[in-house]
Every structure is written in structure tokens, then in C-alpha cells.
Amino acid sequence: MASLQAPLLAALLLLFMVFQASDSAPYGTNVEDSVCCRDYIRRALPLSVISRVYWTSDSCHRPGVVLETIRGLEICANPRMPWVKKLLRKLG
User: Fold this and answer.
1) Where does the signal peptide begin and end (predicted)?
2) Contact call for residues 78 and 64 (beta carbons, < 8 A)
């Protein structure tokens, strides 16, 4: 039984790390008050679920628009995507 625990634990830890790296939620950097995006959401969000929008810091490696939903979730979006540009125009 103990021989299966170590590989199972290693597999679960690896799976957790993969899901964390592919998450489209913003994360903080070492720079005070800056937020960056690791990944972008892959589908468009309707305007009706967005409560707030803000840009990531200029110190980030990749540009991003953070969409805050009415439920309080923060989701990174690619500012080059047509649906994001359209959303920004409507909210602008």
C-alpha cells in the first residue's frame, strides 16, 4: 500500500501544478500593486457578466485585460482578441 502512495501523491501534485499554470486568473508580481496574466480565457464572456475591467501592469511580460465578473471572479483576457476589443469599446 505504501508503494502506491508516493507515485499517487506525485501525480496529484503534478496535476495541481498543471491546472495552476493554465489558469486564466491574474496573479501578483513582486512589484507592489501590480497584477499580471499567465494565460488568457479562451472563450468570449458576455457583457452582462462583467462588472469591472482593468489593464494589467506595464511591468508584466504579457499584456492583459482583467475582467471582473458580477460574482467577483477575475479573469484575464487577451487585449488583441476581437471580442475583447469590442467589449472595451462598449465599456469605454
Assistant:
1) 1-24
2) yes
Judge if pTM exceeds 0.70: no
DSSP class of 1:
-
Rg, Å, the chain Cα set: 17
Domains of the chain in sequence order:
24-91 (2.40.50.40)
Is there a contact between 13 and 5 (Cβ–Cβ < 8 Å)? no
Contact present, 41 and 75 (Cβ < 8 Å): yes
DSSP-assigned states of every residue in 21-88: HT--SEEE-SSTT-EEESS--SS---GGGEEEEEEPPTTSSS--EEEEETTS-EEEE-TTSHHHHHHH
The predicted pLDDT at position 59 comes to: 87
For residue 76, give the H/E element and its range. strand 74-77
